[in-house]
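pls design
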């Protein structure tokens, strides 16, 4: 079996693990928000942990599975809250605070992690 096929299988398995993690945590946290979600995608982006589109699509990097649970939860809540506020206004941060009251500390910790090195 070629290295290319092995690498592809590895990535598929990791994406499936990430999808399970993200969908389970979104299901939990969205009980507090009740946002409408169009689609959840698991990607292999080079510089972003996650994103949210105006079409209510949530995107996450599969490497989220390598983070500590509180960091992964923060990322998930952060993108989920963009469904309510597509910005980083005070209203947005108050939404995040609702389920992650120590978000400032966690955000600082997350910024220290270089996604390219994982």
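designed seq:
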């Amino acid at each position: 079996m070629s290295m290319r096929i092995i690498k592809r299988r590895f990535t598929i398995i990791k994406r499936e693990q990430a999808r399970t993690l993200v969908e389970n945590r979104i299901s939990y946290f969205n009980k507090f928000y009740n946002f409408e979600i169009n689609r959840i995608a698991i990607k292999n982006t080079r510089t972003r942990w996650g994103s949210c589109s105006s079409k209510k699509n949530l995107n996450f990097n599969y490497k989220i599975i390598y983070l500590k649970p509180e960091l992964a939860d923060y990322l998930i809540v952060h993108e989920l809250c963009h469904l309510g506020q597509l910005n980083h206004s005070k209203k947005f941060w108050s939404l995040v605070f609702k389920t992650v009251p120590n978000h400032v500390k966690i955000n600082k910790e997350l910024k220290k992690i270089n996604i390219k090195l994982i």
